[in-house]
Amino acid sequence: MKYFSFMAAALLSFTVACNSGTEQASTTTAEPSAANAAGQSAVQDDDSQKDVVKVAIGSKDHTTLVAALKAAEYVDVLSNAGPFTVFAPTNAAFDLLPKGTLDDLVKPENKNTLRDILEYHVYVGVLKDGLMGDDMTYGMANGQSVTIGNKDGKMTVNGANIIATVPASNGIIYVVDAVLLPPKK
Description:
Helices cover 38% and strands 21% of the residues. By secondary structure, the chain is of the alpha+beta class.
């Protein structure tokens, strides 16, 4: 009889504990706030080294690239830990595209095409310039490859000149003087 009383008390305690846990869990569940839903790019950190997106945002020469990243909803992706190597075209590089190309690409119905082009500028990993030899190819985030040129200390990617190197907290940025367009599939 003592055994039965002990088991009944244990079962009752277990049932009460489970029910209170369920009630507590259901009352503490809440919708994420808008700030939490914004993603990695919304994290405010003025002390650490800037990620590739924050470096681009801080550059007067990359406003077109930043606008393209926003139109493609790609800002949070490149704000994550990485590491990434980004070949970042300047505003002047975008100006070399045929007239109307950029305006067409940033339309919502062309978001996938814009993402494909932007992903053709991103390598997942860090490519150090000292290790990139002439005629080496690297697979980019969109699944296609670019070719590095490295002759007499002058580096290129698919023929575009690499004009600057900028370190970031989640990778490295190579500033380029042309927009890299992926080969047609």
